[in-house]
């Protein structure tokens, strides 16, 4: 059964996709950095842990184009990634 990712296409929420269970200190540090920037600019967002959310994981795998976590997703598109 294929997962229908179209529900993400109309979702206006800004998501911070991350994986806190990946065991990578890079992901945790970069997630914290992105969180700080969003909060400082009063941009509302919601965390999604791709390790525990299967639909988010499938969206990440299909639409991230090889980008690494963490990343920002809105309306089913990757808007930004952490660099450095």
* Helix and strand element order: HEHEHEE
Task: State the share of residues found in helices, binned by percent.
Answer: 25-40%
Share of β-strand residues = 15-25%
> Over the alpha carbons, how many angstroms does the gyration radius reach?
12 Å
Structural class: alpha+beta
Number of strands: 4
Roughly what is the average pLDDT, rounded to an integer? 88
DSSP summary: helix tally = 3
Overall geometry comes to globular
Largest sheet: 4 strands, mixed
Span between termini: 38 Å
Low-pLDDT segments, ≥5 res: none
Strand order of the largest sheet: 2-1-3-4
Tell me what the structure shows.
It is a single chain. The chain has 84 residues and is of the alpha+beta class. The protein has a domain at 21-44 and 51-84. It contains three helices and four strands. The chain has helices at 6-9, 25-40, 54-63, and strands spanning 15-18, 46-49, 71-74, 77-81. A four-stranded mixed beta sheet has the order 2-1-3-4, with helices on both faces. Helix 2 (25-40) links the parallel strand 1 (15-18) and strand 2. It is globular. The N and C termini lie far apart (38 Å).
Identify the notable features of this structure and list them briefly.
Glut_rich_SH3-bd, Glutaredoxin domain-containing protein, four-stranded mixed β-sheet, Thioredoxin-like_sf, alpha+beta
Task: Summarize it.
The protein is α+β, with helices and mostly antiparallel strands and 84 residues long. It has three helices and four strands.
């Amino acid at each position: 059964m294929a997962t229908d990712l179209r529900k993400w296409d109309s979702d206006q929420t800004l998501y911070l996709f991350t994986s806190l269970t990946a065991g990578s200190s890079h992901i945790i540090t970069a997630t914290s950095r992105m969180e700080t920037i969003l909060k400082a600019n009063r941009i509302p967002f919601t965390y999604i842990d791709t390790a525990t959310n299967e639909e988010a994981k499938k969206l990440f795998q299909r639409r991230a184009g090889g980008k690494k976590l963490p990343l920002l997703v809105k309306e089913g598109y990757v808007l930004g990634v952490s660099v450095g």
